[in-house]
Queue: 3 jobs
Job 1
Amino acid sequence: MIEKFVTTDDGTRLYASEMGRSKAQAVVLCDGLACDGFIWRYLAPRLAEHYRVIHWHYRGHGNSLVKGDHANIGVKIFARDLMRVFDAFELGEAHLFGHSMGVQVALEMALAAPQRLLSLVPVCGSYGRPLDNLHGNDLANRAFPYLMGVVRRFPAAAQRFWSRAAAMELVYAYAASREVASHLIRREDFQPYFDHVAKMDIRIFMRLLDDAREHTIEARLPEIHTPTLVIAGERDTVTPVHLSERMAHLLPDGELFVVPEGSHVAPIEQRSLIEQRVLRFLKAR
């Protein structure tokens, strides 16, 4: 594996890594909010058997830094950072994957630089405003301003609570029983998410979630002509399957693959099924 730091236009240093076949077509992987790669644990090495695979960390995530007062983070800023990652690895064009919030980032890239994309693979994500449909209602969206107010007023206390809660067995048990297909997932595959969340600055998380919850490109989906495989989890409660159905319908060259029993983390639940479908799609394109 090759690791490097990519410097953005404002001097922020972003961590990125490369694995796989150096002379092959490239695949670029974009994470979800508060993630640093756990979702690609199986898919990335499988893709690396055939492709050059690039994975990077957003500002304030994993090994990447964030500067100043956290105003320089957001979906569109991440999309511009993604362009710098393409440039740093000298990618003329690539297949672009996004999971969860990474779908929003990838779609912004598709609008800004369609000539640099061979294909798109949005995985368990939305084209915008993800809190509007969380668990089938907008309760989280309505509660968000109050939670943001608490974090701004009591940042130190909020951080302590956030870090301790992410490390609690009760929190893991709840997520494993309600948010994922517990009979299809192994703890060692899901635990890295909680480990990363516990170390993340809650102010960055809330600032980014505030941006993502207002961001949408639904009206512009018909402008994206990049061949796209939309992957949805049949039982995804974070981004319900009807959002993926609509995305695939509005994209001129979109097709939908619904993962049986899959949740928001389908790539680590139904790994073989997704790997086979993705490789078939990339080969066809």
Job 2
Amino acid sequence: MTFLESILALNLLPGIGPIRVRRLIQHFGGAEGVLRAHRNKLTAVSGIGSEIASMIASWEDHVDLQGELASIKSRGLTLLTPEDSAWPPPFHHLPDAPLLLYVWGNVLESDSRSLAVVGSRKTTHYGRDCTHKLSFQLAHMGLTIISGLARGIDTAAHEGALAAEGRTIAVLGSGLGQLYPPENMALAERIADGNGAVVSEFPINTSPTRYTFPQRNRIVAGWCEGILVVECAKRSGALITANLAAEYGKHIFAVPGGIDRPSSEGCNALIRTGAILVTEGSQIIDELPPLAPESRTRAPLHDPDSASGNLRLSENESLVLATLSKEERTMDQIIEDAELEASVVAATLLRLEMRGLAVQLPGSHFVQSS
């Protein structure tokens, strides 16, 4: 058996976990040695009881290795392991790092320069707007945006990065064959289609449960250089992920919210206990190690020395800009006049705003910049 097949087989075995598997690999000198070991020798390893030892010794009765390999191939997936150059460097130092990752799309070495963006599933317009704007800015500056593909803040984070034509990684709390939430399948396809990857440590057909999401969150917290919390309640999974990232020694950033909003209590509490308050992407960039020049090669969104008429605009940007004037326009009016999808208009308006061609006013009204 190859190393890849051996580590995949161990990952398919239920109820062991990466910490004990790594202990076994170290004891037997490799993943293949673990699978060949006799039951009595397996029980000699700390933390390995007779039940787990019996399962490992008869592993072929418990997993369908060839079936999983066939599914990986038929779905166009790849496996990322610690032997690959694109394996996130922080994982080498985390005892509970995943054994491997199923990858739909491509993970690059440059994705090690990353920021996690997390928050509530039940978010407000304020939360979505802040997330989209900051993720857009950071992805354009060269950071890979990591989030969990969940509803709310996660979705806005991925969409902001895609709108900036930057990179984003979606880490699932399920197998890639049971993508959750199902309504984000189109978003997942956009991510995998050249702008990043959708990844999971779980076997392909693993369904999401209350236990798989906390496991997913440790990957998000462990992968990134820092974590940005945009909107969350006082008790939430996002806050747990942020605290875990702090234990891993990551930078913690938070967007402030209204003191009368329960949806902002978690972020405000983080700021009160030491998280860095941010309102612009550049404030995060300033706290992280400098980005390599090659990761910041995208052209500026707005050159103050250039007249707006000389800027190259995409077809959608031209259509949306044509609907704007000095009079306030609502999002619905712009969507109707431009005859584009709401998500396309939202992303395009943000690009125009970043180029200095549009201004967003309170209440989601827009005008052409002076």
Job 3
Amino acid sequence: MEFLLLIVHILVAATVVGLVLLQHGKGADMGAAFGSGSSGSLFGASGSANFMSRATAALATVFFLTSMGLTYFAGQKHETRLVPVAKPVPAQAVPAVPEGAGEKSGAIPK
């Protein structure tokens, strides 16, 4: 299920990027008014704004939902992989350091 959600997430992300790149900016109509650009497009002069804007908004919603779904699955995996914490060792169980072990005499304690 997580793999399918990841594939949908990647496809939606690529489609949103494509739709955003296909849309005209707000200043594009001003350039067309002075003759430096073409006002005709595949969807007409104003027909693309409604279709492209709505498609981008719908795909952005799907993108956010798949992001939340992937976050949920990642959290579920993390909870199942918890490692138990080791108990601290009591102070009495720590062995004492033999005399002369810290000196620089070169003698190794046996």
